[in-house]
Amino acid sequence: MRAILLWSLFVLGASQALGHARLTHSDPADGGSVPAAHAEVTLQFSEAIQPRFSDFVFHYLGQDPEGKVDDGNRLPRPDPVFDETRQQVTMALSENAAAGWYVLDWEVLAVDGHTTAGTLRFLLTP
Ligand SMILES: [Cu+2]
To answer: How close is the Cα of 39 to the center of ligand 1, in Å?
Structure first.
């Protein structure tokens, strides 16, 4: 009985580790900066994600890196571009984006049907 329980835990744990789309890399990194001349964000996930059920929202915090994220500083939705693996997505800020701190809220659906979400905070430098 105990062996079966341990086996089930192992199988469950393994399938969860394989299934969810974890953020494995981002450019810029969380807390990092990006120059206005290259005002885009790239996210890399551990699994392919489903573009139609994934959501990306930028918020502009101005000069306060700890600024609150709310509807008042939400920006128009970006136009995410997926690479052929659908594990990588890139989105640009608008051409006239102001220098300062931004937060990207992301939520993605992996091909296994599980949703993961996170935030990325970064500084846009002039
Ligand atoms: Cu999963």
So the answer is: 31
Please check whether the domain covering 21-125 is classified as CATH 2.60.40.1220.
yes
Half-sphere exposure of 28 (CA within 13 A, CB side): 21
Q: How far is the CA of 111 from the centre of ligand 1 (A)?
A: 8
- Full-model pTM: 0.84
Question: pLDDT for 82-122, tens place per residue?
Answer: 999 999 999 999 988 999 999 999 999 998 899 999 999 99
Domain boundaries, the chain: 21-125
How does strand 23-27 pair with strand 40-45? Answer: antiparallel
